[in-house]
Amino acid sequence: MKIGVTGPQNRIDELKLKISSAATLVEIKDTDLWQLPNLGLTAFIDAGFDDTPEHLHHYLHLEFPVLISAAKTQLARQLAGQTCTTPIFGFNALPTFINRALLEATCYNADQKPVLEELAAQLGWQCTWVDDRVGMVTPRIIFMIINEAYYTVQEGTAGKADIDTGMKLGTNYPYGPFEWAGLVGTKDVYELLNAVYEDTRDERYKICPLLKTEYYKAL
User: How far apart are CA 74 and CA 90, in angstroms?
Assistant: First the structure.
């Protein structure tokens, strides 16, 4: 099985761990995406699509499934008005969320679900379908916790290290909220929360000013 991949290097490295020996992973440069139909691929993964939606036109008419990073966007929005014959699926490709047995996925055409389910089975992944909504499920929950942790620091209730320790001991999470934000990247945390807030107008996702400040300082 030969799977093509493009995207940020840290996400590709995590995909390599996830795929392991189940398939051959071929890294493809953005400038070579036009060659996708001729590379003999079983599937293709764009692990950075929600930051590079201009790639979409390369994926509309392929004979193999395409998985695109869609945590910060929505398939329905990206494919609106497009004629697409490719089975395209969204998945959670944010750092730290890739290399796990669970594949958190969305679809545009429900009739195409068996295509991804078959691919996932061949790779030893468990495919879990979630609604085609900005933020998916896991990122919404974890990033909302990160946002609340920033509010706690901003209010002077506790420091970052104490909050990280408390969360790991109290919830058995693999990382504290600030550790997790550092591993994912402040940019992705901020942009996903902002996208979810714009989509829902739910105050739970309104970004803490301290997080917003750190985001702008990191640009």
Answer: 8
pLDDT, tens digit (0-9, with 9 covering 90-100), for 165-212: 999 998 888 999 999 999 999 999 999 999 999 999 999 999 999 999
Whether the model pTM is above 0.90:
yes
Go through the domains of the chain in sequence order and give each one's CATH number. 2-129 (3.40.50.720), 138-218 (1.10.1040.50)
pLDDT in tens, 85-100: 999 999 999 999 999 8
